[in-house]
Amino acid sequence: MQLEALKQLLSQHPDKRLAFQLPEGKLIPPHFHITELGLVTKSFVDCGGTKRSSKACMLQIWVANDTQHVLKASKLNEILSHSAAIGLSDEDVIECEYQSNHLSIFSLDNCQVTDVAIVFNLTNKQTACLSPDKCGLDAFGNPTGCC
Question: Is residue 98 part of a domain?
Answer without folding.
Answer: yes
